[in-house]
Amino acid sequence: MRFCRRLFGLLALLMVVAATQAQAEKFVVGYQPYDTISYQAIINSELGLWKKYVPQGTEIEFQGALQGTVVANNMLADKAHIGYMSVMPATILCSKPEQAVVKMVATAGMSEGTRCSLVLVRKDAPQFKSNEELARWLDGKVIAAPKGSASDQYLLKFFEKYKVKPAEYLNQSIEVIGTNFRIGKLDAASLWEPTLSRIATDVGEGVARIAADGRACDNPDLGIVVMRKDFMEKYPDVAKGYLRSELEAQRYLLDPKNWSSVIDMVAKHATGVPKKVLWYSIYGQVPSDSKEPVREWKSFYFNEREKQNIAEVAPFLQKDKRIKDLPPAGTVDDAMARQVFKEAGYTPVSDKITLGVINGAPASACPFKD
């Protein structure tokens, strides 16, 4: 009898320990504080939206990185479970199922190429009447981009379309690109918001100028939320709950009455960047003389335009030998996101755009002066 009581007590203790371990399970979200596709991750973190939708006791750590490739590498190493990145690093990540099977589960936002698909030229460069004229000026120049990024992808497509032959095409981080523009060591570059607006002429330092955007070579910007498949299968309630919080964060970001509070939150993470630059990086009209009013749209799940972009990028990267194999069938899997949207009771604004658009505003509309 005494033995049975001891055995029962031991089993009860083991159950308590197991329950405590389950409650203490921690998951890592990799995001980029210096990239507008991660602004909703910052909103999610600051407002604690995820706490409303994941199982009680779940812990989520938001881990910042300066580039999507860093987030991707962490996911391959099982150091992150959810990630925010552009279509190029997402495609490269998902093309390595022998290391980890990763799914593209939601879209973080899309534009016609006004976030990370732009050519910046030095401030004393001539005014160009056409993209062809810009391309000929770029011949023989020193050009840079963070390799493996969506900006790198954009320049590769621009070079291919206009047969640009730079003197050097350098792999530089966003910080180094900014520094080299300031000291006159770069002729042109491509990088993403908000660093782009920080160094450009509209609201920034004015050490560089926007000369072309994604429409120059039909290269839109697409942000993607990715998840490890083993995480989704082992913790479906956490994965689904996080996607619900992502949905609410995107809706919060779109609402004009929240724009100032969004920037207040982002400023805590993108340290050193003026608030007027952060505001313009997501809500401003870029390029400032653009005839297209829509800066970006949010669809949460993948509509046809998003699917088409992913389908075009993978073969391009394979041709350029950035990936060996195409991502496996079923990589784009937004079934959970669509279920979350349906259960939330929302209605798509159109058959092409699910949540809404951001119409770019002039710099004069910015509520921040610093």
UniProtKB/TrEMBL annotation:
Chief location of this protein?
Answer: periplasm
What's a BP term from Gene Ontology annotated to this protein? alkanesulfonate transmembrane transport
Q: Which UniProt keywords apply?
A: Signal
**Compartment annotation:** Periplasm
Residues of the signal sequence? Answer: 1-24
Of the GO CC terms on this record, one is: periplasmic space
Task: Say which family it is in.
Answer: Belongs to the bacterial solute-binding protein SsuA/TauA family.
Protein's UniProt name: Nitrate ABC transporter substrate-binding protein
